[in-house]
Design brief:
Number of helices: 14
Strand order of the largest sheet: 10-13-14-7-15-16
CATH topology of the largest domain: Rossmann fold
Shape: globular
Number of strands: 16
CATH superfamily of the largest domain: P-loop containing nucleotide triphosphate hydrolases
Radius of gyration: 22 Å
CATH class of the largest domain: Alpha Beta
Helix content: 25-40%
Amino acid sequence: MPRLSVLDNLLVGMPGKGGRLDAAGGRQRLAEIGRSFGLKLDPNRLVSSLAVGEQQRLEIIKALFRGARLLILDEPTAVLAPQDVEGLFAALRAIAGKGLGIIFISHKLNEVRALTSRCVVLRHGRLAGDIADPAATAAREMARLMCGQEIVTPSRPKVTAGRVVLELDGVATNGHPGMALKDVNLAVRESEIVGVAGVSGNGQRALADVIAGMLVPTRGKLRIGGEEVRDRSPRGVQAKGLGRIPEDRLASGLVGALPLADSMALPRIGQAPFSRNGLLQPAAIADFATAQIKEFDIRCQGPQARTGTLSGGNLQKALLARELAFHPRVLIAAQPTRGLDIGATRFVHEKFLGLRSAGCGLLVISEDLEELLTLSDRIAVMYEGAIAGIVDAADATVARLGLLMSGARERAA
């Protein structure tokens, strides 16, 4: 319930003595869960102000709060730092040991192998495999069952980074739902992928919104291609060569009720070839969508299919197709593979690496550390709205990134 607080969402349907809500007891229980599992949330914050990842965290807390006999966890670690994942897994093992049932849904095969005692694999709505001993089964075999074919890790060619194409200089914000930015300094060069890690709600959303022109900073400068961006609107940064893949595909990326063709043309609907002399050109819009559907293998009923009927993977392909068609100088992608299967994830990664080879600079914001370690040349870690450290990918480990995500800061070289 977005208009209620975190505490209210936890207490709904749980009256205390005399039929009154036990707010004090709820706060105490929430604090205990926060200490036990690292799942901390401010009880007074409105749910509408929480990022997508924080809302998922609230759902995990709610299940633990209510003492469920059966837990169904759908991608529960997507918003946790590595140390918190270990704590959550320890708690889940203890819960299972006391006789409770747990259904753990995840595309992270290493987590499935580490946690579960039995694993079933679904593909296209059908049972593709039943694995009695996940820990003894190779991740490669699980991936094959998931996708119906062998999955090959995309090659990462060596390239030389060029000049700076995106730069934030002392950027700060306030009043943003979630975490405000605090003097953020960050640069991305040509042919470079800079990853941004952090537990959800530590400023990643504000960072993406500032760069995309959705949020005006209180101070600091934004430069694209070496030039300061004066027009901070979405159209202004787009004109400088910025491409954007937002965190929420349907809320701020595509329009679920519109035909796919209209969704794909919408950010540039007032430009040629989509409009002429102030009039829309339906044939040009349909032709553009048809070409992208074919090139990116977007599974749908054609350009007039309602956008909201597409799967998550195909929505992500549509966003990629739309942005790449206009050859961005810089691409910012927030949670680009959240909820995607291995095959769709590999497709997205291949496109990112292709952009890198072509000279584009990419800023990839993700809560999946394995993804960042696979793609990135450098990884910046955010904590409480600031950059806690920037690590070369060659020197990065999950443990080192996890410490930065928990608030430890790198000692200046």
